[in-house]
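> call design_seq(struct)
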């Protein structure tokens, strides 16, 4: 039995939008750390990934002499609209920066930090467009919906492109789907649409080890679903209700962002699996296949993101519905005036 059963239970039972298997790796890292085991930078890199700083703005522009895309220093004061702001969304996604910062190097991305960087890029007159550069298996559901909503509301202010480079799974895809366009790097994977939690019943292992745990609690359901007894029907139903609610938010957000019906997201779009580049485009999960460099070249050249399948039709339908509603309202006002 694990040396930290409460820690494992807390991490595993929380709702996660992450690729299956990655959560176990997170738990293993945390348990080893608390147990006093310090992993080397190489070991952490294998589990979490050694990345460039995540969630912060990097400016890219065109070198006038060579014509190549290159990083720019903020102090260089590029001309208005000439730069592309790139925000890395890599590794495990969590809400607060302190949850993903690590002394061995950045191993994840904070939704709060991405939000701050997004607003910074939107307010910067030198930035003409924004690229969210994804390589993430997903993470905690906390903060993801708020960030996705913020990105969606920012549409129209500046072009926002989600570059899958080379993984946008689960929570990462939820965020990416709110951008104006999703571009898949050749060989990239996207999807894994779903939410899960896991209950570990360690009661038999505890008995075998000679442990007896007694909860002293107040509140009818305060300790339901604890790991030292089998998961009861009521506790399962309560947890399933929460998971279903997050899944509803997830699929609705993707449907809104991609301009398709929720049923299409639920019955297609990988159904919990990741989907490879061209197939993702075919299913409407992404818009095209191109490298990050090609995306930056296009944006610097002033080319706008392509409309995702169904987005134009969706906006047209919304416009028709709004016009019809306005006509009906005017008709009611005329009838009221005659009366």
């Amino acid at each position: 039995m694990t040396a930290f059963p409460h820690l494992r239970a807390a991490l595993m039972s929380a709702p996660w939008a992450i690729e299956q298997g990655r959560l176990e790796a997170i738990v293993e890292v945390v348990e080893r750390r608390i147990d006093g085991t310090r992993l080397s930078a190489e070991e952490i890199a294998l589990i979490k990934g050694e990345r460039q700083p995540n969630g912060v703005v990097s400016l890219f522009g065109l070198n006038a002499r060579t014509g190549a895309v290159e990083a720019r220093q903020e102090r260089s004061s590029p001309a208005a609209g000439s730069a592309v702001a790139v925000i890395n969304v890599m590794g495990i996604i969590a809400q607060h920066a302190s949850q993903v910062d690590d002394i061995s190097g950045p191993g994840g991305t904070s939704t709060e930090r991405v939000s701050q960087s997004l607003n910074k890029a939107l307010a910067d007159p030198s930035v003409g467009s924004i690229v969210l550069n994804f390589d993430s298996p997903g993470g905690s559901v906390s903060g993801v919906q708020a960030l996705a909503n913020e990105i969606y509301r920012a549409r129209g202010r500046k072009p926002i492109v989600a570059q899958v480079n080379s993984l946008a799974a689960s929570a990462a895809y939820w965020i990416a789907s709110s951008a104006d366009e999703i571009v898949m790097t050749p060989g990239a994977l996207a999807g894994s649409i779903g939410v899960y939690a896991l209950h570990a019943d360690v009661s038999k292992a505890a008995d075998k080890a000679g442990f007896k745990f007694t909860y002293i609690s107040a509140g009818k359901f305060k300790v339901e679903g604890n790991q030292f007894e089998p998961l009861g029907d009521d506790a399962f139903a309560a947890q399933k209700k929460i998971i279903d609610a997050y899944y509803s938010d997830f699929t609705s957000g993707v449907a809104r962002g991609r301009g398709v019906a929720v049923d299409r997201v639920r019955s297609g779009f990988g159904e919990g699996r990741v989907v490879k580049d061209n197939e993702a485009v075919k299913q409407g999960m992404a818009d095209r296949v191109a490298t990050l460099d090609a995306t930056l070249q296009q944006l610097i050249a002033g080319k706008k993101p392509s409309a995702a399948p169904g987005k134009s039709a969706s906006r047209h339908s919304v416009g028709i519905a709004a016009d019809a509603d306005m006509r009906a309202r005017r008709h009611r006002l005329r009838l009221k005036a005659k009366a």
